[in-house]
Amino acid sequence: MRPPGLTLSPPPAAALLLSCPPPARGQAPTFAIRQDPAAARAGGDVTFVLEPAPGRVLSCSWYRAPSTDLAFEIFTYFAEPDLGQLNGSAHTGRETGAADCSMCIRQLRLNDSGAYTVAVRHIQSRGALGAAPTRSRPDRPCLPPWRPQAPVTLSVPCTVPLTQPAVTPDNATVTENDTVTLSCRSPPGTETVAWLHDGAPVAAGGRLSLSPDNRTLTVRPVQRGDAGAYACQVSNAISTNRSDAATVTVVYGPDGVTVTPPGPLWLRLGSRLELLCAATAAPPPLFAWARGNASLATGSRLRLDFGDPGQAGEYRCRATNPALGRAAEASAGSTLPKPA
């Protein structure tokens, strides 16, 4: 019994394509065997096709071995007369032949991996003259001593449901216009890797690039719209799995500092004023208020009870990005006593 997860890699073998009686020197037909699909998967089907097509043949015999040993015969298909398929001792119930000497194996299993040999018996073979073979026990193809040709080896990889991948780093903070790189740690058996940004597929192009195997995503230069949740999705023939989201934070600003209402403002003595400061930044900016060289308060709002003409002047708001140390200012303009 094979351990779970084992990928079978059988030794190379040759497919023997034979005819009897042996043709004259230099006249031996040569065939190649094409596997369709080229990458077989457990649970799927595969077909072996002879190229070029062998033309009119009496029979085709397939063997589950690198030889034509009768103990490994899967079946013999009798094409002329059309007697159909006679199964051998190595037939599992999943192999089907055809008059063109092809063989289809359905619902592949891991133990289908190995070498396969076909022997082609042409219509002019001895024993085909005078009487046709019977379904009970037709004559077996004779095996002239030709050199092996057209190797065919079937490999059925162990395809198992994929475990969950992971994105590293799972939390990245990057300054706008710098570079961020994310990697997908994919499980064994992964065939394809795709990326998603806030649930939408990511395609390479412009500032986004992917490694040849799609396992690494690079954004250069980063813009503030690149912030969000990133995940990688892995797939194989039988399963798909997605990573937990990794968070990318783009640090920028402050930009667009404003004070509302804008000045100049005329106020009556005894009136109350509230100023609001706003700015665009990530992380959220810190606000501080000042008039002249005097610091007044922190926070986005400044409330004033205007009771003294000496309070008149320019009120400024300073917004600071706590991660970058960058700052920008805006002013409410002049605040003046309203004339009587």
From TrEMBL:
Record keywords, A-Z: Disulfide bond, Glycoprotein, Immunoglobulin domain, Signal
Keyword Disulfide bond: yes
Any Pfam family: Ig_3
Matches recorded under InterPro entries: Ig-like_dom, Ig-like_dom_sf, Ig-like_fold, Ig_sub, Ig_sub2, IgSF_CEA-related
Keyword Glycoprotein: yes
PANTHER family the UniProt entry points to: CARCINOEMBRYONIC ANTIGEN-RELATED CELL ADHESION MOLECULE 8, IMMUNOGLOBULIN SUPERFAMILY MEMBER 23
Protein name per Swiss-Prot or TrEMBL: Ig-like domain-containing protein
Lineage: Eukaryota, Metazoa, Chordata, Craniata, Vertebrata
